[in-house]
Amino acid sequence: MSGSGPAPAEVPADRWTNPLRSAADRRLPLIAGPSGLVIFGVTGDLSRKKLMPAVYDLANRGLLPPGFSLIGFARREWQDEDFAQEVRDAVKEHARTPFRQEVWQQLAEGMRFIPGDFGDDDAFKRLRETVDELDAERGTSGNFAFYLSVPPKFFPQVVQQLKRHGMADAPEGSWRRAVIEKPFGHDLTSARELNQVVHEVFAPKEVFRIDHYLGKETVQNILALRFANQMYEPIWNRSYVDHVQITMAEDIGIGGRAGYYDGIGAARDVIQNHLLQLMALTAMEEPAAFDAESLLAEKLKVLRAVKLPADLSAHTVRAQYTAGWQGGEQAVGYLQEDGIDPRSKTDTYAAVKLEIDNRRWAGVPFYLRTGKRLGRRVTEIAIVFQRAPHSPFDSTATTELGANVLVVRVQPDEGMVIRFGSKVPGTSMEIRDVTMDFAYGESFTEESPEAYERLILDVLLGDANLFPRVEEVEESWRILDPVEAYWDTHGRPARYASGTWGPVEADDMLARDGRSWRRP
Ligand code: BG6
Predict the structure, then answer these.
(1) What is the pTM of this model?
(2) Most buried of the four, 14, 149, 365, 374, by CB within 10 Å?
(3) What pLDDT is recorded for position 1?
(4) The last residue of a domain, from among 133, 162, 181
(5) With 90 as the cut, is the pLDDT of residue 506 above it?
């Protein structure tokens, strides 16, 4: 098939703002220009469950160019056909959209597989030849993204090999991009080293770091909610907000990921990236424009203003799940999981109290918590407001009245809930909490794309809005490092039974401040 795709693939700088493009034009989904994707670590879990299905879903939605090409690179003795079969199985099992033979056929024609390990020069030579062949055969125009879905210890070798074999430098008029998956190091020092290695080969603008939470519709909606409306922003500050709770609870354990998870733990796995990004979006000022530079500038200001509490023993908690019941089934404890050192001190639950030292948020705690094997899977941001300063009602009328809360439900049941007091029907004046609910499923007919669909498309378009930049990654480690260092030198993690809402120490942490965690 010859590649006669749409025009070159740089995202128009005016994607959102050009007044000459009508609102309807701007709403049209952008289609990636001629391009290809090379995935290193293509036999891994992430690739099978998320990346390959996302590529298919994009193709199915007509968002990939006709000559799109996908190259898998891994240490397997596979032929192109074996690779295509693997992708097909992964797509059938995990894709969001229905399987259509004609879409599959077109995609499969552009699939190639390169067997080899990362030290193998011959394999990289073959990769280079394949990239050139695809350019000629399918019209990928020299535009390739290299997705490093591999442990960070291999980043240096892979990017160096790309450079050595002439694939990191874009031919005239085309682009080359590197996509890297977390963890971006395990502390500030290692993150800096990694960033340096990657930036020796790729310019900062060519590096796309994946934080898949930023690809979620509900997360992008935080900015829409705050900055496209008039009613929230005036109360979004220390004069009205008592505190903020950001929760990412999972009901699953570590599954087969012992090798990755042990030694990393909950705080490094998700607070350093997903939860600090949610916090930054919740707390940041309005960006000057909706573009990558302006978003970075505002998120960075928040992260730089984050302050840890002086007493880390009172205001941070880490814990490990023990055996218990989860969804009607018996679950083993973390230390009994396959591949886990029975003396491991790795946290599967982490909670921290943070403050943001600026005029908008001074004195408002942000409580972040995450855990595996908790009561249920839910991610939410809860803005808990101060109590009304005065109530004309008899105190007995309001005994069942809580504080006003605005909850952004990131997942599941994506939407937003506002809680406020309302009179209970009847002759007495009794006031109780009620909720007002916005659910995506009820307001929109379109289904939300998977985060990886959005992010892979944005890589191919060169749109960097939803990708954390090096400065944010380093700033996030600056926040977390002292907490990890404190935990390292202070005893063992607390414990909580699988299927519960975490350790009692976490409840105590909020109780000390006269507050309590929400039970979502
Ligand atoms: C990943 C973490 O970044 O996010 C996993 O490494 C976690 O430990 C996962 O399970 C959760 O993602 P989601 O999209 O299911 O909330």
Answers:
(1) 0.93
(2) 374
(3) 34
(4) 181
(5) yes
